[in-house]
Amino acid sequence: MKKLTLILVLTLGFAFSADAGCFENAREWVIQTEGSVNLENVGFLIELTAYFEATGLC
Fold first, then answer.
1. N or C: which end of the chain has fewer CB within 10 A?
2. What residues contact 41, with CB distance under 8 A and at least 6 apart?
3. What is the C-alpha separation between 31 and 11, in angstroms, rounded?
4. pLDDT of residue 4
5. pTM score, two decimals?
């Protein structure tokens, strides 16, 4: 339960500070490649969202 709470806090907190389109695109990409968002790849999700924002891909 603590892991799920941490994932929700990190992803939702970052989603509201980032462009929702960028976050959704990154989340979908992580789910397609990894199967789900979890503690092992949530950092990658945040980095990918920032990359999408920086390059204007969303």
1. N
2. 30, 34
3. 13
4. 66
5. 0.65
Quote the pLDDT of residue 22: 87
Do 28 and 49 touch, CB atoms closer than 8 A?
Answer: no
Residues 6+ apart with CB under 8 A from 47: none
CA distance 44 to 41: 5
What is the CA 32 to chain-centroid distance, rounded?
A: 12
Give residue 48's Cα distance to chain centre.
Answer: 7
CA atoms within 13 A on the CB side of 34: 16
For 20-55, how does the pLDDT look when each residue is reduced to its tens digit (9 = 90+)?
788 899 999 999 999 999 989 989 999 999 998 889
How buried is 47 (Cβ within 10 angstroms: 0-12 exposed, 13-18 middle, 19+ buried)? exposed
